[in-house]
From TrEMBL:
<comment type="similarity">
    <text>Belongs to the small heat shock protein (HSP20) family.</text>
</comment>
<dbReference type="Pfam" id="PF00011">
    <property type="entry name" value="HSP20"/>
</dbReference>
<protein>
    <submittedName>
        <fullName>Heat-shock protein Hsp20</fullName>
    </submittedName>
</protein>
<dbReference type="InterPro" id="IPR031107">
    <property type="entry name" value="Small_HSP"/>
</dbReference>
<dbReference type="InterPro" id="IPR002068">
    <property type="entry name" value="A-crystallin/Hsp20_dom"/>
</dbReference>
<dbReference type="InterPro" id="IPR007052">
    <property type="entry name" value="CS_dom"/>
</dbReference>
<feature type="domain" description="SHSP">
    <location>
        <begin position="34"/>
        <end position="147"/>
    </location>
</feature>
<dbReference type="InterPro" id="IPR008978">
    <property type="entry name" value="HSP20-like_chaperone"/>
</dbReference>
<feature type="domain" description="CS">
    <location>
        <begin position="38"/>
        <end position="145"/>
    </location>
</feature>
Length: 147
């Protein structure tokens, strides 16, 4: 019989690992049966010399009233609704994975932007938002008076 040193926290360490694994995997919501990130908006944000650009994957928008874009305190907010007319009767549907319903996402922008002059275009399920950067005043030296 080999002796194994007693480690009182071994079981707690195993439990911690299992809990971490449980909470980092995507699991279905009990209420909807869908993934927690099912309605999450996927967004890429990058900046050029003169503007900040955000591209969002939002397939299924039918008209411009279905999406709302706002910029407040350097935070871009995109929200709206994806409506789909039932192309197939529900009793004939075997699987329904395309997103239908409300979406909302707020993103902190990497640079200060102006809310004037923002251009948004929607094409092939991708919303592109171009926001002009605010021109920062050049650094100004401040003279210190010595007495």
């Amino acid at each position: 019989m080999s002796l194994i040193p007693y480690e009182p926290f071994r079981q707690l360490d195993n439990m911690r690992r299992e809990l971490n694994r449980f909470f980092t995997t995507d699991f279905p919501s009990l209420a909807t049966g869908f993934n927690q990130n099912f309605g999450a908006l996927r967004v890429d944000v990058y900046e050029t010399e003169n503007e900040v650009v955000a591209t969002c994957d939002i397939p299924g928008l039918e008209k411009k009233e279905d999406v709302d874009i706002s910029i407040d305190n350097n935070i871009l907010s995109v929200s709206g609704t994806v409506n789909r007319i039932n192309e197939v009767k529900e009793e004939h549907m075997h699987r329904q994975e395309r997103f239908v319903g409300r979406f909302q996402r707020s993103i902190s922008l990497p640079s200060r932007v102006s809310s004037e002059g923002v251009k948004a275009t929607y094409k092939n399920g991708i919303l592109e938002i171009r926001m002009p950067k605010l021109k920062d005043d050049a650094k100004k030296g401040i003279d210190v008076e010595f007495h």
